[in-house]
Design a protein that fits this description.
The chain has helices at about 1-10, 35-50, 55-70, 115-125, 130-140, 150-160, 275, 280-290, 295-310, and strands at about 25-30, 90-95, 100-105, 130, 175, 185, 220-225, 230-240, 260, 265-270, 315-320, 325-330, 335-340, 350, 355. By secondary structure, it is of the alpha+beta class. The protein folds into 2 domains: about 25-150 and about 220-350, Glutamine Phosphoribosylpyrophosphate, subunit 1, domain 1 (4-Layer Sandwich); about 170-215, no CATH class. Strands 4-3-2-8-7-1-13-14 form an 8-stranded mixed β-sheet. The relative contact order is 0.18. Keywords: Autocatalytic cleavage, Hydrolase, Protease, Signal.
Length: about 350
């Protein structure tokens, strides 16, 4: 029913589906307002202060500002510790002209994740490096290695283990019961499928993810920059989800999921339940929606609606901008905002996206 109503609204020839108008170029747009506007300002000011600053440079500068300022605690060092109390970083950067990209996943002990991703783009023929070997690559390229833990993130993890008995967490189909106990865990066999067709019946607790609060969705920064010449770039940086299973990688460093850009068409940034969202490549789909003639807002709403049809409880945020700077967004499960600054704007503006 939700989908049918939404389609009916799209068919109306009215103001409900037109895009937010472009403020002019150059322009920077990214997920979230509030503390994330430090990134918007850094990227925009880099573009207007020196015409030699490319869109790709601006995205790196903006995301790095968020990493350095630990935007909302969900970007950069000292945030979102995993089950072992370690913070790891994911980042991706993409050139909308060449469609080339560089990314790092599960980066350990190096703070400048977006810049390491840029080095993957600039100095390798690869698209993604991961884990300790991504760290080795970073160190070989002159990045400093150090502890990403802070007193605050260590305390957060300690309290999660001792006071909250490791609740909530991301474990399912294991023993001891993950809704009550900490690990170590042992897999149950066979696990219960999503459809519930296979399950062990000799236990007294649920084998599938129970309807209890999960760790809150992480507030990734995903940014799109448009140079005055019209060239575009996109990037994403995050420290992932709090209390994740060590080794987990979400949507952030995945091209087409955390962000995507094509200078001929437009770009997209995403945030939310990364493990769910990456199954839909939402930013790739959003840019393809623009290619098919949708407005940015229509493109974002379509992507969110696709996810809601399969996962009605998904928390998501999608911001979309076309090559001229017209923009729109949509989200679900929370109030999603995005920030933008362009043309001659003296300050960053925060916009609340459509909620579905």
């Amino acid at each position: 029913m939700r989908h049918l109503v939404w389609v009916a609204l799209l068919l109306q020839a009215g103001h409900d589906v037109i895009a937010q108008q472009s403020p002019g170029l150059p322009m920077v747009i990214n997920t979230w307002g509030g503390p994330f506007t430090v990134a918007t300002d850094a990227a925009y000011e880099a573009l207007v202060s020196d015409s030699r600053t490319s869109a790709l440079d601006a995205v790196e500068i903006g995301c790095k500002a968020c990493e350095r300022h630990q935007c909302d605690g969900t970007v950069g060092y000292g945030g979102s510790p995993d089950e072992n109390c370690e913070t790891t970083l994911d980042a991706m950067i993409m050139d909308g002209g060449t469609m080339n990209s560089g990314a790092v996943a599960g980066l350990r002990r190096v703070r400048d994740a977006i810049s390491v991703a840029r080095h993957v783009l600039d100095y390798t023929a690869h698209s993604l490096l991961a884990g300790d070997l991504a760290t080795q690559f970073a160190v070989e390229n002159g990045f400093a290695e150090g502890d990403l833990t802070t007193p605050e993130s260590a305390l957060l993890c300690s309290q999660w283990k001792t006071r909250a008995s490791c609740q909530p967490n991301y474990r399912i189909n294991v023993e001891p019961n993950p809704s009550i106990h900490c690990g170590p865990y042992t897999p149950l066999s066979p696990p219960q499928s999503d459809s519930g067709t296979t399950a062990r019946r000799d236990t007294n607790y649920p084998l599938v993810a129970p309807a209890v609060p999960r760790p809150r969705s992480h507030d990734t920064i995903s940014m799109v920059a448009i140079h005055g010449s019209g060239s575009m770039a996109a990037g994403t940086s995050t420290n992932g989800a709090s209390h994740k299973v060590p080794g987990r990688v979400g949507d952030g460093p995945i091209v087409g999921s955390g962000s995507y850009v094509d200078s001929d068409i437009g770009g997209c940034g995403a945030t939310g339940d990364g493990d769910t969202m990456m199954r839909f490549l939402p930013c790739y789909q959003a840019v393809e929606n623009l290619r098919r003639g949708m407005t940015p807002r229509q493109a974002a709403e379509d992507v969110v609606d696709r996810m809601l049809r399969k996962y009605p409880a998904v928390s998501s945020g999608i911001v979309v901008v076309d090559a001229r700077g017209n923009h729109g967004g949509a989200g679900s499960g929370w109030t999603f905002t995005y920030a933008l600054r362009g043309g001659g704007m003296n300050a960053t503006q925060s916009t609340t996206a459509t909620g579905l």
